[in-house]
Design goal:
The complex is a heterodimer of chains A (about 250) and B (about 450).
Chain A lengths: L1 E10 L2 E11 L4 E5 L6 H9 L5 E9 L2 E2 L5 H6 L2 E4 L6 E5 H15 L7 H14 L5 H4 L1 E2 L5 H15 L3 E5 L7 H14 L5 E5 L3 H6 L4 E6 L2 E6 L1 H10 L1 H10 L1
Parallel strand pairs in A: 3-10, 3-11, 6-9, 9-10
Antiparallel strand pairs in A: 1-2, 1-4, 4-5, 7-8, 11-12
Helix pairs in contact in A: 6-7
Chain B lengths: L2 H14 L9 H17 L15 H4 L4 E2 L10 H5 L7 E6 L2 E2 L14 E4 H7 L1 H7 L10 H9 L4 E5 L9 E7 L4 E11 L4 E10 L5 E10 L4 E9 L5 E10 L4 E8 L4 E10 L4 E10 L4 E10 L5 E10 L4 E10 L7 E10 L5 E10 L5 E9 L3 H8 L5 H17 L5 H14 L11
Parallel strand pairs in B: 1-7, 2-6, 5-7, 6-8, 7-9, 8-10, 9-11, 10-12, 11-13, 12-14, 13-15, 14-16, 15-17, 16-18, 17-19, 18-20
Antiparallel strand pairs in B: 2-3, 4-5
Helix pairs in contact in B: 1-2, 2-7, 5-6, 8-9, 9-10
The chains are: A alpha/beta (about 250), B alpha/beta (about 450).
The structure holds adenosine-5'-triphosphate and magnesium ion.
């Protein structure tokens, strides 16, 4: 589904990603861990098309197409979804309005007609229930005045409604209490399917207890320094990042 | 100052004076004569005056606008009219500065309530008019007020007696149809003790260069409640001056919603005097496109203790448009415990758009809570990317955010039919792409 080859990315003159290689197949769950400032959010942003980054080398191919060539909204319509580490507040635009706009853009992109108003409401209310949110959130401005945890939940609500193919979740678990984490994880698990892949950026094993990854990668200093199975996360929790960083320095 | 223009108007005045309403009333004749002299000495305001620093009205002086002597409703397109005239209101329609009984609707008015044209009021209730006219709008303030006093041909007169609560809004629909025409109108709104009224002023015109000079004086009695809406959608070649001058008694509540959309050059004054524990809320939205110049000038005078004022003006300026916001809050030495907040937020959509914003707090009392804030900025790139990541293309995202910024003010309108008209006006001025009205 997604093939990242030797990806180098800079902000201004400052190199941040220094040769990322990653293969993600449909149905897989990849966890990306790594110390603060190692480039995890940068990778998520570059994949979803945020401006301000320069790709100096390498490529990212998504479903056979050059992902980096596409405008951010085209990527989104093609099924790439980023759940933000810091979701943005959009005063004056209601949650439900944005959901409708987003869903209809995807449908238009796929040559389908606009969603029926009643069907849409049923779908949205279903997902609101799944994430145990209050329906009132639908009519509030996007993320405005939401608590940190509510914002994260709202990201997953959007994801559940838009049904993307590649779900990139940037620290969705940070700031969630244990109950919210369970609810969000169940929401994510309900979306798991052989056609869909997940990239989960996280600092904590806690999330991986609920959503078991197929692969764990450690990103440090702009490179993937170690990859392994779900066990790697446990090992990391025990030994800390310095263990892999030191390992790499020795090698 | 251009006194040459002033003397041209003075010469014209002799032909129109005999047909102006209230000529039989000595007090009014004297008031008009005094005003004419003041205007002749001054001409229109000059940018040298502090309150007119950012607004140059010399464009008005290049033309000689002429008043129409009588009603010339002519061939008004009824569909066009319908798009501005609200149903379920009492309405006074002024065409080129004259009352049109045919277009107005004053049926089923409670017998104790007066809603009529100013010309009518000067015949039927001259004493009441004499008591109020010119007592909220200070002639020495600037020469547009003097100009208006000398020239006004008609207007709206409203009196709501003690404890009377109007169950329908009153609409003043101000239409100008003539090329190089001038419409000078004077309005008085009186709400006695504990009365409640909602009044809507709608300024529109047919695609012409013309001059509107309207002055509205509002008197809110003690514990009374008045909401005044103003929608200014003049033709894009028109000049508009509109002043609202408000006197609030003890515990009186006044809310103003100012939608400044039209005109080549438009200036609004909103000045309110607050008494003990009065509450005053001023909301404004100005949208400028092309080469429009839109100036809003507010003044809130806290004269006595415990009054509350809240002000929020938002501006969106595109192309080469220029916006001006001058907001003054004056807290007199006696006005302890004043609670006042003034905000002005501006969105510039093009590199050539401009805004001059000048909030001023003048505080002479020592135990008060006063604040103000100003922002001038572009759309937030983070928000644009967030929307893009949710499948929305960049242009649509920009339009959505612009609309959302403006819509905060539209959403404050409590009268449904007016809300819808104002919404249409906002959507018509900015690309509708990205804002699907059906989804709102
Ligand atoms: N716009 C920018 N300008 C300058 N430096 C930047 C910019 N964006 C990111 N960086 C730098 O790039 C590095 C990687 O940042 P990034 O946000 O990708 O880290 P991260 O792995 O997501 O960290 P965290 O775990 O704290 O979220 C950091 O050193 C950061 O300061
Ligand atoms: Mg990060």
């Amino acid at each position: 589904m997604l093939s990242i080859k030797n990806l180098h990315v800079s902000v201004g003159d400052k190199p941040i990603l220094k040769g990322i290689n990653l293969e993600i197949k449909a149905g897989e769950i990849h966890a990306i861990m790594g110390p603060n400032g190692s480039g995890k959010s940068t990778l998520s942003h570059v994949l979803s098309g945020k401006g301000g980054y320069t790709v100096t080398e390498g490529s990212a191919t998504y479903q056979g197409k050059d992902l980096l060539e596409m405008a951010p909204e085209i990527r989104a319509r093609e099924g790439v979804f980023l759940a933000f580490q810091y979701p943005v507040e959009i005063p004056g635009v209601s949650n439900i309005y944005l959901l409708k706009a987003a869903l209809n853009s995807i449908r238009k992109h796929n040559g389908q007609p606009e969603v029926d108003a009643m069907d849409f409401l049923t779908l949205v209310k279903d997902k609101v229930r799944l994430l145990e949110m209050d329906e009132k959130f639908l009519y509030r401005a996007v993320n405005e005045g939401f608590s940190g945890g509510e914002k994260k939940r709202n990201e997953i609500l959007q994801m559940a409604i838009l049904e993307p193919k590649l779900c990139i979740m940037d620290e969705t678990d940070s700031g969630l209490d244990i109950d919210a984490l369970k609810i969000v994880s169940e929401g994510v698990n309900s979306l798991r399917s052989p056609e869909r892949a997940f990239v989960m950026v996280t600092h904590y094993q806690r999330l991986l207890d609920y959503i078991k990854p197929d692969f764990v990668h450690v990103l440090a200093h702009g490179q993937i320094v170690k990859s392994g199975g779900a066990d790697l996360a446990l090992e990391l929790e025990e030994k800390g990042y310095s263990w892999v960083e030191d390992n790499q320095a020795a090698a | 100052m251009n006194t040459a223009t002033a003397s041209r108007y003075a010469a014209e005045y002799q032909t129109i004076a005999p047909v102006l309403p209230g000529q039989a009333l000595p007090w009014l004749k004297a008031l008009r004569a005094e005003a004419l002299m003041a205007f002749s000495a001054h001409g229109f305001p000059s940018p040298r005056e502090e309150e007119w620093r950012y607004t140059n009205v010399s464009g008005i002086e290049k033309k000689l606008f002429s008043p129409s002597l009588s009603l010339t409703a002519g061939d008004l397109d009824s569909e066009w009219l319908k798009s501005y005239q609200l149903e379920d209101t009492w309405s006074v329609v002024l065409v080129n500065g004259h009352f049109s009984a045919e277009l107005s609707n004053l049926t089923d008015l409670p017998s104790t309530v007066s809603v009529m044209s100013m010309a009518d009021a000067l015949v039927k209730q001259p004493d009441k008019v004499e008591k109020y006219l010119g007592t909220a709008a200070d002639q020495s303030e600037h020469s547009f007020i003097a100009f208006n006093t000398a020239w006004f041909t008609d207007g709206l007169f409203v009196h709501v007696p003690v404890k009377q609560v109007l169950n329908k809004p009153i609409q003043l629909l101000h239409i100008v149809t003539g090329s190089d025409a001038m419409a000078t109108t004077r309005n008085i709104i009186i709400a006695d003790e504990m009365a409640e009224a909602k009044v809507i002023e709608t300024f529109v015109g047919i695609d012409n260069a013309y001059l509107t000079a309207a002055v509205t004086e509002v008197f809110v009695g003690s514990n009374a409640d008045v909401t005044l809406y103003k929608m200014q959608s003049e033709s894009d070649k028109a000049y508009h001056f509109g002043g609202s001058y408000i006197k609030q008694a003890r515990d009186a509540r006044f809310t103003h919603h100012n939608f400044a959309f039209g005109g080549l050059l438009a200036r609004s004054d909103i000045h309110a005097d607050l008494d003990h524990a009065s509450e005053c809320e001023l909301n404004g939205l100005y949208l400028g496109v092309k080469r429009q110049h839109i100036d809003n000038h507010t003044r809130i005078n806290h004269l006595k203790p415990y009054a509350i004022s809240r002000e929020l003006y938002k501006g969106v300026l595109d192309d080469r448009a220029r916006g001006v916001f001058q907001g003054r809050v004056i807290v007199a030495i006696d006005a302890q415990k004043t609670d006042s907040q003034m905000n002005n937020r501006n969105l510039l959509l093009s590199d050539d758009a401009e805004v001059d914003t000048k909030p001023q707090l003048e505080i002479y009392a020592d135990d008060v809570k006063c604040g103000h804030g100003v922002t001038v900025g572009q759309l937030d790139e983070k928000s644009i990317f967030y929307l893009q990541s949710r499948c929305v293309d960049e242009e649509t995202a920009r339009n959505m955010l612009t609309f959302a910024f403006a819509n905060e003010m539209v959403d404050k309108i409590k009268i449904r039919s007016l809300h819808d008209i104002v919404l249409e006006q906002v959507l018509a001025r900015f690309p509708q792409e990205g804002v699907n009205k059906e989804w709102l």
